[in-house]
Amino acid sequence: MTNHTPVKTILILAANPTNTAPLRLEQEIREIDEGLRRANKREQYKLEQKWAVRSRDFYRAILDYQPNIVHFCGHGAGQDGIVLEDDTGKMALVQTNALASMFKLFAQKGVDCVILNACYSEVQAEAISQYVNYVIGMNRAVGDRAALAFAVGFYDAIAAGYTLEESYELGCSQMISFREHETPVFKKKNLIYAPIAQGVIAVEDVIPPNPYQGLSAFGEEDADFFFGQEKFVSNLVEVTYKQPLVVVVGPSGSGKSSVVFAGLIPQLRKEGNWLIESFRSGKEPFVQLAFA
């Protein structure tokens, strides 16, 4: 390494509140640390850690360490955000829009990659990728051992000089034995380039949000683009007032999630008197229900 090679800081933020399922976070961080120490390019990376992270600890650590890579390990709550701790060690949610707002600033100060090694964190990854070049999240629940295997493979490749996308691919390959290799999702910020007199510059925030979701489901943040189901949503809202249990049934890809998250839930939130929690049943539906 020459004197001109900058040292990149990896900041790990960990949270496992006392009233949530225990995770093997200590082992995950230890394995990452050991992998970095033994790697060929270990002198190019510096690892920092912050445990039992509360909301203010989250941004304070980024302000203090000025990392290039931010790695969160802990619980995710899907549409509702990621799970940090409060002052008593119990769970406290940080909403998706709050995370995206923070990383809009931090991306300008050197944060190049964010890894959310937590269940159902694709929602947050998508929001953060508006501002940060590379973001990794999980599109469903991820097992403890699979999450650890992904992190170890990812950082082993990083410290060996591989690109972020190549490192992501190695991490996914380590999850094949757990049949969870399709759980991590890799997102890249879209940039367009505009010519100027002296060369080329990156222009951000020029293209408005894309209203076409393709095969992806609409979320609450996409409610303004969700149309064509107004009558169905109106009926669904009316039925929700009357019945304690409402089931939306349909074949895969028919739009069940979209009509609930981008249709029903935004209508109910406007009233301000509904408590809305989101969770996926997974292998242990009652545990997930209790957690939510």
Helices and strands, with pairings:
Layout: E1 8-14, H1 25-38, E2 45-50, H2 55-65, E3 69-73, E4 82-85, E5 91-94, H3 96-106, E6 113-117, H4 122-128, E7 134-138, H5 144-159, H6 164-173, E8 184-188, E9 192-196, E10 199-203, H7 230-242, H8 256-271, H9 285-291
Parallel strand pairs: 1-2, 1-3, 3-6, 6-7
Antiparallel strand pairs: 4-5, 7-8, 9-10
Helix pairs in contact: 1-5, 3-4, 5-6, 7-8
Name the features.
17% strand, alpha/beta, two-stranded antiparallel sheet, 292 residues, 6-stranded mixed beta sheet
Give your account of this protein's structure:
This protein is of the alpha/beta class and 292 residues long. 36% of the residues lie in helices and 17% in strands. The protein is built from 9 helices and 10 strands. The strands form 3 sheets. The protein has a 6-stranded mixed sheet, with helices on both faces. Helix 5 runs antiparallel to helix 6. 32% of the residues are buried. The model has no long low-confidence stretch (mean pLDDT 88).
Fraction of residues in helix: 25-40%
- Category from helices, strands and their pairing: alpha/beta
Distance between the termini: 48 Å
Per DSSP, the total helix count is 9
Multimeric status of the protein:
single chain
Task: Indicate the proportion of strand residues.
Answer: 15-25%
Count of individual beta strands: 10
Which word captures the global form? globular
Can you summarize this structure?
With 292 residues, the chain is α/β, with parallel strands linked by helices. It is built from nine helices and ten strands.
